[in-house]
Amino acid sequence: MSVVERQEWDVVVVGAGGAGLRAAIEARERGARTAVICKSLFGKAHTVMAEGGIAAAMGNANERDDWTVHFRDTLRGGKFLNQWRMAELHAKEAPDRVWELETWGALFDRTKDGRISQRNFGGHEYPRLAHVGDRTGLELIRTLQQRIVALQQEDHRRTGAYESRLKVFQECTVTRVLKDGSRVCGVFAYERESGRFFVLEAPAVVIATGGIGKSFKVTSNSWEYTGDGHALALLAGAPLLNMEFVQFHPTGMVWPPSVKGILVTESVRGDGGVLRNSDGERFMFDYVPDVFKEKYAESEAEADRWYDDPDRNRRPPELLPRDEVARAINSEVKAGRGSPHGGVFLDVSTRMPAETVKRRLPSMYHQFKELADVDITAEAMEVGPTCHYVMGGVAVDSDTAAARGVPGLYAAGEVAGGMHGSNRLGGNSLSDLLVFGRRAGWHAAEYALGGERPRVAEEDVGSAAAEALRPFSAEAGAGAGAGAAGAADRAGGPPENPYALHQELQQTMNDLVGIIRREAEMEQALEKLAELRVRARRAGVEGHRQFNPGWHLALDLRNMLLVSECVARAALERTESRGGHTREDHAAMDRRWRNVNLLCRLTDPTDGLAATDPVRGQITLDRETTDPVRPDLLALFEQEELAKYLADEELYR
Ligand code: FAD
Question: Where in this chain does the record put each Fumarate reductase/succinate dehydrogenase flavoprotein-like C-terminal domain (predicted)?
């Protein structure tokens, strides 16, 4: 094998979305030479798709808002399974992170008196989302990118080289986090265009790779969301936390089929849009669960008054947390009251003037006009649930974002678990990226600059390269260098097409581990995943390493299969319904599960596609009891409300 190029850095950040860029800025500002590596083009990360806004209790639209209200909303939304210290830091620090963006050049929409405008979103008591129309993610990434360029210009003035202390490797994919003993020592990656392998050596690696939606058939997520960071952490020995919690956003497009799943932002409801069934009923009034009854309007008149007078009226039930709305839509469709294409109706056309729709929701207007030939200023949209976000992720320390059990590994953004509990509130991701991206960069830099540099072993580089080349050595490929493992594979069956395997995986997860889950179906899913894992070892590709999307997908399959098994196994284990995890056979939330985390670990980290026993699979599950919530934080809630969530022993402690 040819020599693999190596470069030395202090901190490597995998991912250039909001979390990755914020981490990189922080690490570089704290003196660490920092490399950012991303699968897509710089500036094209999934974060650019974020529409509605960044949740931060700045109190611009309602001065009663502050971090304690935001904290309470976040815990209610997550059904009290949130890592409470993360939720506390998030609520306290989000306003500073938004203001900081403004000092770096972000142009938010304004209130009449010139402050940053904040809009309503599901589960947030007050208007809280700082936004730029419905293109907030784009502005966030543009601003962070601009900040990176500014830092590079500063470095050029000091060192004569723009990329001496902060460099972006775009269109490069990391396939392994490398270790020296128990410590992280770098990453192994390939350049998508040339297929060239290279190693970035560093004592600290921040994983900021986003989510897992591409394992599901109907999803709002971009092509990058193949769960790479989740799998990289597992393979490096870090556990994943509460992977059963996958958010199905209530409003994705349902028609035409080619765009099924594309998001219809929650701002549509936040700005006054309502949901109706085929009988024309605003059905959400029938779906307000007991835990939320006191906070939501009982009549359409009260709900409509709330938009102008939120202090004396209760919120419309269309603004319940996402899990509630998604389940309600699912029930209406199942009961035969759906729209012609299997969704329900979301209407702004009768709620606000056409010009207001176009001004406040420009992307939605164009999205429906161009993709579905629907004019949303004149007719209702058809919408239904779509896989949107994963609450589960790398188990991290709340303050430092350090991944559990692997010194030098950090995780931030959607790939990290804990912050959102069992269900994320809209807008809380963009603020999460900024708050914990900064913390990850800060602590990764401190760690990297504080100790001895670890060493990357040549044999580990060789193994990572061999693993990456496996798709060329299976039956469909040249067969060269297949070795004993390749021979065993060939004996095991015919070559497999990575695209066909991906489709089968997506169908399996959608049908058997989707929005409503049943024990027998999840068992069936685990059997299917075991079969797919064996077949994925034979996923062969033709051609060479120069821009070869089939090869890229064959490598991504390992990650999607690992992550899917985590989701299915944890979902089978948790015998209750909570947030983004709904069991038909255990339909209620069970207080005994309130303080239980499920941790997934990989049994054989040397081989992500090991042909292990199909019943036991690759993943082992452990239960752990969560830390008790700090008393001063519990005191922010009424005792009566706590009694709905907390186990008896927690309440009386
Ligand atoms: P990303 O922005 O996805 O970045 C991940 C990065 O990792 C990318 O650069 C990718 O190329 C890179 N990467 C992945 N794998 C690898 C690998 N193996 N090697 C190298 N690089 C890799 N949240 C809100 O709070 N408010 C909103 O209004 C909102 N709107 C949304 C609208 C849509 C349509 C969607 C889909 C989501 C929305 N969200 C919103 C959620 C939010 O956008 C995401 O959760 C968030 O952007 C994730 O950011 P991140 O930095 O964690 O990851």
Answer: 502-600
